[in-house]
Structures are given as structure tokens and as C-alpha cells.
């Protein structure tokens, strides 16, 4: 057995079995206490973090010179200390509740300090230095804030109080890691079940059957498969590497430029982060923070996510039209009925999940558990997909290891959230934003967008959203924005930071697969995924796009948004059958912008401008085609 970690660490023999066994115990612990076990929330979260941190220290070396084929003494010490902290909380939890943040004893401070150090170190090993530095800055602000003059100045907080506050359910063990330990972990394990039983391949085959034969088919296959896989996986970069290894070479083989192929995969994978029903970890976090049913988040995100993919599809089609590309030959494509006949049973768990979440609207935890059980049951329909005890252990161990990134990200983000709650930074930021933006909600949204995107360039999406929600969320709500719209706004921009240059982590992953220049892939991704930068403003000012309001208003808003995004898409890409004159592009852009702002007057004006631009383009194209070849020359 071989288990691969970070930083080049590759474990085999007894080392690999230790990590495998610890990860398997992690999954068993989680599933037991999510089903029949009874435990206090603080102890449950502490156990979750202890397992996650212990595995991270065994999988990730201390640095580039760390031991690659085994564990160092320091790795094992940190892993043991992670478990020891859990034991301390479990033994003394009832007394800890009364002391936390108020009157900690010496052991509380020792174990609290250890927890903060281990979380920051685990985060550094897994993600690099940026997230730990951000967390350290926030802690430094809490401790040294009394030296700061003005609105952002603080009373003097003793270090013991800061540590005790962080070592509680208002800090590291707060709502962020609670979401990771319940919903996110469960759905990551569900994703591992789907991956091991071959559902990812079924997604790819279905996408090929539906879209492989149409104009520019391989790019549309990439969009469909990445959307389906990305919503469940919750990681745009892993989505790119998994599906892109097949789709990017396929797109290049039919005539797409390498950087365009990589950008298609990047934009499609980013969209999976806000595509229902799972939305990565974001939907669960929004539901927990706002204390609303998960169904409400799914319902609100549905139309913007679909609009995003409509625009990406449209731009891909424009490019295929410009290049004169065809689809794949029908003989090369799988047949839908053959896919259903041989592998259709593997999609039953997805249908169970959709039915549980969207129809009968049970809790996400129960829906996830039912879906996992359904996956095991349907796997026995055919020998090649059957999940026996050995394979079950492999899936549970792999699922636990795949969940580590969210666990350590939410724990580190918990440090930031703890400081925000202790110091009231969110309220201070709210008043500052209001004074900066004056009476302009648009300016406030632009400021929030910039902060979220810049933070997301160095942080994982989960940590970016949690930090933005803690600092910016109250500010946006205070200036009158609907809470669900405010949080979706922040989550969208936390997601698109993955394709926004200069960092664009997801674009870098796609560039690695395609062998193209990462920055060129990043800018091409922005051009393809431009709708993700506009849609949040659309639904903040047009709540019917979030299915809030009457059905008449929703129909009008969706229709107007579709036409508006079409106009803007034509303007951005500059091709509609043939290349557009720059003046025509400007008219299309103006018409699209007017249609995005829902209203009878703006809609009629936008439609008129777009109709005029289209008529002029057709007339110009016809006139050009009638010029004799010798005159063109």
C-alpha cells in the first residue's frame, strides 16, 4: 500500500497502514456520532479536529527538507498532541464551558495555546503560509489593538482571554468547524463513494452522449462533466485535474487552442462551487451562518448558477462557430441507452439525494446518509462496482483524507472569526463601510467584492468565505441588502478568486494539465467566466433571480437576465457568426446592460438596441459577402 501526502511525502509499509487506519477511524467516528452516537457538540468537533490534525501531521512534512518516506519525531509528537487536546476537552468539557473566555485555568491556557499553534502549523503545512499569516494578523490585532487610535482601536485584551476565547465554541470550535464536521465531511465521503464506484466516469459518458456530437462538442462535454463533478467534490482545482486530464486534450484534438481549452475547464470547475445541490461546502456554511434551511440556499443559488453555465456554453459555441469546429463523430460517442443499461444504476444515489434534499426536504445529514447507503446497495447490482468490506474501508479512509482541507481551513478560519466576535470588528467594519460608501450601495458592494477576491487569491475558498462572512457580511446586511443575497454575493466572489489573475490557483492547475502559460489561461478564464463577476450584482438588485418574490417577477427577471447576458456575451467575445465591428459590440453591451436591470423601460430599450445591433451586423455581413473576390483583394 502507498499513501501520498503533501510536499512529496509518499508513505508505504507500516507508515501507510498507520495513516490508512487513522483515516478509517476518523470516518467511523464521524459516521457513528452522526447516526446513533450521543456526544456534546464541543467534544464532537474536538474529535473531528483531532483526527484531521493528526492525519495532516503524518501526511505533510514540516518543509521541503522534511522526511518524505516516513514520519519525523516532530510529526508524531504533533499528532499525539492533537489527540491529547481532544482527550482534555472530552474529560473536562462540562467545567470548560463555564470557564471558557471568562476564567480559564492554567491547563486551559496550555491546551488552548497548543491548539492554536497546531492549527496554524497544520494549515501552513497543508496550504502554505498565507492563511496562517492572516490568522496571526487577526490575533495580533486583538492583542495590540489598544495601541490603534480611532474607530478600530480596542480595549486591552489579556493574552489569556484571547487564548481562552479561541479555545471554545466561539473560536476554533465554532460554527465553521461544526459545518465541516457534519455536512461537509459527510458529503465528501459521499463523493468518495461516487468516485470509487465509477460515477465520475458515468458523468463523463453522459456528457459525451449529450453534447459530444454538437458544434464544439468536447468543450461542452467539459462544462457538463465539470459542473456535475464539481458540485459534489467542492474543490475546483481537484475537479480540473480529474476531469481536465481527459477533456483538455480532447478539446485540443478537435481544434481549440490550448489556453482556451484550459480556460473552459477552469471556468466550468469554478461554477461547480456554487451549483446546487451540494455547492461544495458553501451552501452548508451559508445555511448555518444565517440559520435557515439548506433548501432555501439551494433555491436561491439555482438560477444564478444556471445563468452562469448558459453564458459559458454560449461563449464556447461562439468560439466553435468562429473556428468552424464540428463535433465528434457519432461513431466515437457512447450511446445513452448503453450507458443507462450498463451504469445507470450508479446514478440512483444522486436521485436519492435530490429527492431527499429538494422534494421531501429532510436535513442534509440524513439526506447524505441515505445517499451513502443507496450507493452501497446499488454497487452490488454489478460485480465490477460492488463495495465489499475491503473496498468499503478504502473508500472511508480515502474520504476522510479528502476532507482534511476543509477541516483545517475551517479551524484556522475559526481563529479569525473568534477575533471578529471578541473585538466587534464586524460592526466596526460595517460602520466604516457605510461611511466610505455614503449612500451608494454599489460602492459598498464593489469594496466587498475587492476584499473577497483579494483574500481568495491566497486562501482556500472555505476560509475566504468564512472570513468575508464574518467581516463583510454584517456590513452588507446593515446597508439594507437581503441576508441571503449578501452571503451569496460574498461566496460567488470567494469562488471566482480561483480564476482571477494574478494568483488564479484553479487556472494554474488547468495550465499544468494543458502545458500552457498560467497567466494567459487565467485571463482567458475571466473572459469566459465573466458572468460570475456580474451575476452577484444582478441578484442583489434583482431578488427575483434568487426566487424571492412572485413567479411573474421571477419569470421576467430570468428572461431579462438571459437576454442581457447574451448581449454582454456577444460584446465580450466579439463574434456572432463572423467578427463584430467594435461599434456593434458597444451597442450589444449597452443593450445587455439595460436588460440586466429589470424593468419595463430598460427592457424595451435594451431589446431595441440589441435588435438594431443584430440587424446592422447581418446587413454588414451580407454586404461584405456580396463584394466580388477581386474587389476584396
Description:
With 633 residues, the chain is mostly helical. Helices cover 74% and strands 2% of the residues. The chain is built from 30 helices and four strands. The protein has helices spanning 13-35, 41-59, 73-99, 106-127, 130-144, 159-166, 175-196, 199-211, 217-233, 236-253, 258-272, 282-290, 294-323, 336-343, 348-359, 364-379, 389-402, 404-423, 425-437, 441-456, 461-471, 473-478, 483-496, 505-514, 518-528, 531-541, 551-573, 582-596, 600-625, 629-632, and strands at 2-4, 10-12, 575-576, 578-579. α4 crosses α18 (404-423) and α7 (175-196) packs parallel to α16 (364-379). Residues 629-633 have low confidence and may be disordered.
Helix content: over 70%
Which descriptor suits the 3D outline?
Answer: globular
Main β-sheet, in a few words?
Answer: 2 strands, antiparallel
Write down the overall mean pLDDT.
Answer: 88
Q: Helix segment count?
A: 30
Strand content: under 5%
Distance between the termini: 68 Å
Which ranges are low-confidence, i.e. pLDDT below 50, for 5 or more consecutive residues?
A: 629-633
Q: Rg from C-alpha positions?
A: 26 Å
What strand order characterises the main sheet? Answer: 1-2
Structural class per helix/strand content? Answer: mainly alpha
Count the E strands.
4
Amino acid at each position: 500500500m502507498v499513501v501520498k501526502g503533501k510536499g512529496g511525502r509518499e508513505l508505504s509499509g507500516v507508515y501507510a497502514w498507520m495513516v490508512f487506519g487513522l483515516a478509517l477511524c476518523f470516518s467511523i467516528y464521524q459516521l457513528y456520532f452522526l447516526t446513533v452516537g450521543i456526544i456534546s457538540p464541543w467534544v464532537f468537533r474536538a474529535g473531528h479536529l483531532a483526527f484531521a490534525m493528526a492525519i495532516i501531521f503524518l501526511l505533510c512534512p514540516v518543509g521541503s527538507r522534511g522526511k518524505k518516506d516516513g514520519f519525523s519525531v516532530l510529526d508524531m509528537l504533533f499528532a499525539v498532541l492533537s489527540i491529547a487536546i481532544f482527550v482534555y476537552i472530552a474529560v473536562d468539557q462540562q467545567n470548560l464551558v463555564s470557564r471558557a473566555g471568562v476564567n480559564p485555568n492554567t491547563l486551559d491556557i496550555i491546551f488552548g495555546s497548543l491548539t492554536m499553534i497546531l492549527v496554524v502549523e497544520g494549515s501552513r503545512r497543508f496550504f502554505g503560509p498565507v492563511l496562517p499569516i492572516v490568522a496571526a494578523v487577526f490575533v495580533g490585532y486583538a492583542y495590540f489593538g489598544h495601541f490603534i487610535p480611532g474607530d478600530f482601536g480596542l480595549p486591552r485584551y489579556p493574552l489569556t482571554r484571547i487564548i481562552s476565547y479561541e479555545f471554545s465554541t466561539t473560536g476554533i470550535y465554532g460554527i465553521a468547524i461544526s459545518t465541516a464536521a457534519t455536512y461537509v465531511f459527510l458529503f465528501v465521503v459521499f463523493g468518495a463513494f461516487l468516485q470509487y464506484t465509477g460515477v465520475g466516469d458515468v458523468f463523463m459518458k453522459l456528457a459525451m452522449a449529450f453534447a459530444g456530437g454538437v458544434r464544439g462538442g468536447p468543450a461542452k462535454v467539459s462544462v457538463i462533466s465539470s459542473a456535475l463533478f464539481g458540485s459534489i467534490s467542492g474543490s475546483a482545482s481537484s475537479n480540473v485535474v480529474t476531469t481536465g486530464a481527459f477533456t483538455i486534450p480532447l478539446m485540443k484534438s478537435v481544434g481549440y487552442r490550448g489556453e482556451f481549452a484550459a480556460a473552459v475547464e477552469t471556468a466550468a470547475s469554478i461554477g461547480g462551487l456554487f451549483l446546487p445541490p451540494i455547492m461544495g461546502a458553501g451552501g452548508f456554511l451559508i445555511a448555518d451562518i444565517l440559520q435557515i434551511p439548506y433548501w432555501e440556499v439551494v433555491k436561491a443559488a439555482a438560477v444564478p448558477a444556471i445563468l452562469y453555465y448558459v453564458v459559458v456554453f454560449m461563449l464556447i459555441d461562439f468560439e466553435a462557430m468562429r473556428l468552424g469546429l464540428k463535433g465528434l463523430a457519432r461513431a466515437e460517442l457512447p450511446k445513452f441507452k448503453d450507458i443507462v443499461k450498463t451504469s445507470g444504476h450508479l446514478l440512483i444515489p444522486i436521485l436519492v439525494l435530490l429527492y431527499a434534499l429538494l422534494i421531501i426536504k429532510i436535513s442534509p445529514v440524513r439526506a447524505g446518509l441515505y445517499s451513502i447507503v443507496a450507493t452501497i446497495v446499488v454497487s452490488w447490482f454489478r460485480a465490477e462496482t460492488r463495495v465489499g468490506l475491503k473496498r468499503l474501508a478504502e473508500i472511508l479512509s480515502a474520504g476522510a483524507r479528502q476532507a482534511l482541507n476543509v477541516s483545517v481551513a475551517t479551524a484556522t478560519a475559526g481563529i479569525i472569526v473568534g477575533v471578529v466576535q471578541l473585538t466587534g470588528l464586524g460592526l466596526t467594519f460595517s460602520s466604516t463601510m457605510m461611511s466610505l460608501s455614503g449612500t451608494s450601495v454599489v460602492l459598498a458592494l464593489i469594496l466587498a467584492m475587492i476584499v473577497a477576491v483579494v483574500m481568495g487569491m491566497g486562501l482556500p475558498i472555505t476560509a475566504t468565505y468564512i472570513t468575508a462572512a464574518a467581516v463583510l457580511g454584517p456590513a452588507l446586511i446593515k446597508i439594507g441588502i437581503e441576508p441571503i443575497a449578501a452571503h451569496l454575493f460574498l461566496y460567488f466572489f470567494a469562488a471566482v478568486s480561483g480564476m482571477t489573475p494574478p494568483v488564479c490557483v484553479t487556472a494554474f492547475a488547468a495550465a499544468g494539465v494543458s502545458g500552457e502559460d498560467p497567466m494567459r489561461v487565467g485571463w482567458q478564464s475571466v473572459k469566459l467566466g465573466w458572468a460570475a463577476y456580474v451575476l452577484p450584482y444582478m441578484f442583489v438588485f434583482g431578488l427575483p433571480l434568487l426566487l424571492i418574490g412572485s413567479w411573474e417577477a421571477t419569470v421576467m427577471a430570468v428572461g431579462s437576465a438571459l437576454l442581457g447576458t447574451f448581449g454582454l456575451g456577444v460584446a465580450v467575445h466579439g463574434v456572432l457568426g463572423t467578427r463584430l465591428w467594435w461599434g456593434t459590440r458597444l451597442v450589444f453591451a449597452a443593450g445587455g446592460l439595460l436588460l440586466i436591470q429589470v424593468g419595463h423601460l430598460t427592457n424595451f430599450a435594451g431589446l431595441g438596441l440589441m435588435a438594431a445591433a443584430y440587424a446592422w451586423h447581418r446587413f454588414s455581413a451580407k454586404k461584405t459577402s456580396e463584394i466580388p473576390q477581386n474587389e476584396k483583394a
